[in-house]
Amino acid sequence: MSPDHPPGLDLDRLRALLERERPGLVHGPLTGRLIEGGRSNLTYSVSDGVAKWVVRRPPLGHVLATAHDMRREHRVISALHPTSVPVPRPVLLCEDEEVLGSPFYVMEFVEGTPYRTADELLPLGPERTRDAVLSLVDTLVELHAVDPVEVGLADFGRPEGFLDRQLRRWGKQLDASRNRDLAGVDELHATLGRHLPNSPAPAVVHGDYRLDNVLIDGEDRIRAILDWEMSTLGDPLTDLGLLVMYSIPLELPDSPISTTASAVGHPTPAELIERYAARSGRDVSAVSWYTAFAWFKLAVILEGIHYRYTLGQTVGRGFDRIGELVPVFIEHGLTTLQEG
């Protein structure tokens, strides 16, 4: 299949659908390409030579529909678009699998850069890097300030017992990929369970909020938050804990996991926590728990990847070294709880 007709994207059927559902939107034949970098769902850039859009669909041959819920992603960006939270403008949701072989949605294409590594931030310099990361906190505060009821998301999740369910869910994920001893992982899981904090009022939670899931323009403004596949209604401090975790340098040479935390000018975890607390008004005294939970969650995700690698089910480079990172994440989680 040619680069302009990537797998999973039938451009003729897509154009016919858009012409029928959004007359006047498309002005010519469509071309498309797969946008690299997505962790799970497939993302394509589509153009008619005049305008550009983005198509999101589940992976090819996906099985678990609940894990790739296009309706859910489309719903949350549709609800947030009229607010101050920067999200792409939704164009269309299609649940007819005859068009592309699975449900999908179309949204506007937003210009901007997702910064994935410290090296990519180098051209910005220390001051602009600092401003970009601090704006990440400010935008998170805006997201968490949205009233779910007012935007029609009152039933978007089950906030009651949210942390307990999350902890049990990731514990089950760990059990599903156990094929070696991992020192400290059961202790980390159990300690998190014994010290569950009291959640603040529920908010719309992104679930994977970090610098490479936002698009930043040439003036260092966040133009759009992307990848809403893990979003729900729950404890907003889980987003903060994850953001803090990603702001701690791993200090591992040649790590297969890239972060921006070691970039010159990157704010410290303490600065991010303080800024979030000041701007949101929330009590962040339990942030160590949320950060340790983020370490645990990422350890489980990485162990799952390592498990698939041992079974020969991964494709590409770098997977052979994922396994050695898992104990590091577990150790960070335990240390964070002890220091907290």
Task: Give a description of the structure.
The protein contains eleven helices and nine strands. The protein has helices at 11-21, 70-80, 97-100, 118-121, 125-145, 162-176, 185-194, 237-246, 269-280, 287-310, 326-339; strands spanning 31-34, 42-47, 52-57, 90-94, 104-108, 203-205, 214-216, 222-225, 232-234. The strands form three sheets. A five-stranded antiparallel sheet has the order 1-2-3-5-4, sandwiched between helices. It has a two-stranded antiparallel sheet with strand order 6-9. With 340 residues, the protein is of the alpha+beta class. It is globular.
Chart the SSEs and their pairings.
Layout: H1 11-21, E1 31-34, E2 42-47, E3 52-57, H2 70-80, E4 90-94, H3 97-100, E5 104-108, H4 118-121, H5 125-145, H6 162-176, H7 185-194, E6 203-205, E7 214-216, E8 222-225, E9 232-234, H8 237-246, H9 269-280, H10 287-310, H11 326-339
Antiparallel strand pairs: 1-2, 2-3, 3-5, 4-5, 6-9, 7-8
Q: In what order do the strands lie side by side in the largest sheet?
A: 1-2-3-5-4
User: How many whole angstroms does the radius of gyration measure?
Assistant: 20 Å
Alpha plus pi helix count: 11
* Count of DSSP strands: 9
Q: Let me know the average pLDDT.
A: 91
- Given the C-alpha coordinates, what overall shape results? globular
Q: Main β-sheet, in a few words?
A: 5 strands, antiparallel
Q: What is the beta-strand fraction? A: 5-15%
* Gap from first CA to last CA: 53 Å
